[in-house]
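Try it yourself: sequence plus zinc ion, in.
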Amino acid sequence: METFDLIIANGTVATAADVFTADIGIRGGKIVQIGQQLTGATRTLDATGKYVLPGGIDSHVHLSQPQGGGAVIADDFESGTRSALFGGNTTVLPFCLQEKGVPIRETLKDYHAQAEGECYTDVSFHLIVSDPTEQLIGQDLPALIADGYASLKVFMTYEDLRLSDGEILQTLDTARAHGATVMIHCENEDAIRFLIDKHELAGEIAPRAHAATRPVAVEREATHRAISLAEIADVPIVIVHVSNGQSIEEIARGRARGLKIIGETCPQYLTLTAKDLEGMDWEGAKYVCSPPPRDEAAQAECWTGLENGTFDLFSSDHCPFRYDDDRGKLTPLGRKNFRHIPNGIPGVETRLPILFSQGVMAGRISLERFVALTATNHARTYGLYPQKGTIAIGSDADITIWDPEARRTIRHADLHDACDYTPYEGIEVTGWPETVVLNGAVVIDRGVLTGTKGQGRYCPATPKKTPANT
Ligand code: URP
Ligand code: ZN
Ligand code: ZN
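Structure, out:
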């Protein structure tokens, strides 16, 4: 019998801490040796001239998530995880949205049933708290957190999802006691409603009005409030999809006060601006997401946050709606008013190439930081480390062999999701995932899918240790 199932030989291995030349020996789905000139494998992949990276972890994707108003998310677990895999990811974290009046365990069961046998990548779940009842806060969440659902998202916007400050505090308190991580969507719903009404009255109802109703102040104020609530509840939080420098300053100020505030930004805030919608009529709906992309100055501020460590996470916020579809961006019932456009854009397959090209190749961030921002920090933040997110003995053999010289122009025609456009159409990138190994199995082999759906597994998360769970 061979010593290894697989050796990845001669590559430049990168972790969040180091870059070095080594061979990686894999057996039984795990990394079992890191050394020089390893031999004795059933199969050897030659990674000469390539980077050998921990598989990407995208901790912010929306798959098969029910939407209000008749809209339907384009990707289910099959198409969403297939697209993620082609983009060099081996684990994704979608959301299970609590339905009001339905026991959350029932809803979770439904998500698991939809994911079962369909996934190309490993999957772990966040829970969205939309109705913090006594039952949920006092009974259900503590039990679910202990069972491996150790991250919760709360919203300060969207009429049907937003929580009051008091409800957020209750959720944070339960998270603190039981070791969950809370992600907060920071936008002030009352201010948004006020601005939407004003724009409607003025007859401004095209998609480009969306950004004007969610200005920086709406996000900055909510970010400040979320950080204050976290300070009061004495618990770390993640501020998700941060779009601008003023919100970044709030995070930095909170950190300077000694709070553990984790910041996340996304490709749309580096590559798109509100100007992209100028001169566009309904096609501007392709770029409608919240918070909206801002301007070039905000892009530069987000880059600074990635470079200086204010951001720990770079996620896609993949939330795809088909454009040419009345269950998508054309809006259910054909209601041609920006307020009815489902919020969200696709991006799970293009996240890594965009950050590699514009970050590493452009000299803005190191390769180690790229790994931290796209894999290691996601595993650490959401209770999957060191099983996931690193190249180390004993870790799952989730590895992406990266060609740093491959030049591509992003075209939706070449992607693998179930959407019908990409907001990144035409962007030129250098660097592309070539081969992907999931739990020791070669699932993308030099650009060709060799894995099968159902190969991806569910990974429960480990809650943080607290007096209540130790
Ligand atoms: O517009 C966005 N970001 N849609 C996805 C849902 C969310 O808020 O993350
Ligand atoms: Zn959000
Ligand atoms: Zn999202």
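One thing you can check immediately is this: The chain has a mean pLDDT of 97.
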